[in-house]
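Form 7-S
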Amino acid sequence: MSTWELIAVLVAGVGAGAINALVGSGTLITFPTLVSFGVPPVTATISNAIGLVAGGVSGTWGYRRELQGQWPRLRWQMPGSFLGALLGCFLLLHLPETVFEKVVPVLLVGALILVVAGPRIQRWSLSRSGILGHTGAVTEAFPLSPTRIAAMTTATFLVGIYGGYFTAAQGILLIGALGVIAPDDLQRLNAAKNLLSLIVNVVAAVTYTIVAFDRIDWTAAGLIAVGSLVGGVLGARYGRRLPPTALRILIVVVGLIGLWRLLA
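Output:
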C-alpha cells in the first residue's frame, strides 16, 4: 500500500474504534477500506479482527462504570461469546465467504427493527412482569428467569458465531436482541456489548494468529490497532454523554449505512 493508503487505513481504524464503542459496526469501515486497497477478503477479515482488539479494550474500559452490577448476566453471556467466537472462526477458515454474506443483511435488518421497537417492547415486557409502576418508572430490578437466561445466552452465542466469522455489526445484533430479552438502560446494554464484542475479537485474534499466521497483513492490523485504540477512547468519552434516543438514532443510521455498503 502507498503512504496515502496507509494513512487512510489508520484513519479508518480511528473511525472504527469510535463507532464500535458507540454502536458496534466499525468493521463496516475498515473491512471495505482494506479490500478496496487490494487486500484479499479473508486476509482483510482476519487482519481487521486482530487490529480492532485494541479499540475494544479502550472502548470497554471507557464504559466500565456502566458494567457495574451486570455480573449476574455477564457470567452467562461471556462463555456464550467465547464459544460462539471459536465456532465462528472455524467457519471462516473452512466455509466459503458467500455463506454468511447472504445472511448478514437479513440479520442486520432484524436487529435494526429490534433497536427501533425496543422501547415499546421493553415497556410491554416490564409491565407484564409487574415491575413497571403506574408512573412509568421501574420499581425493582428486572428478574432473570431460567427461560430468559437461556434465551439471552443463546442469543449471545449465536451473535458470537457471527462475530467470529465476520464481526461487522455484531454490536447492533447484540443490542437489538438483548434489549428485548433483558430490558435495561441503553448505555448499560452498550457497555455489555463492548465487553462481549471484545471477547469475540480476542478469541478471533488469538485463533487467527495461531492457525492462519501467514494470512495476516500485519501492517494493516497494526495501523487499525493504533487507530481503533484512539477511536475507542473518543467513542466511549462522548458516547456515554448521549441520551438514549440520540444513541438509538445513531445506531439505526450507522446500521442503515452498513446495510447499504453490504448490499452495494
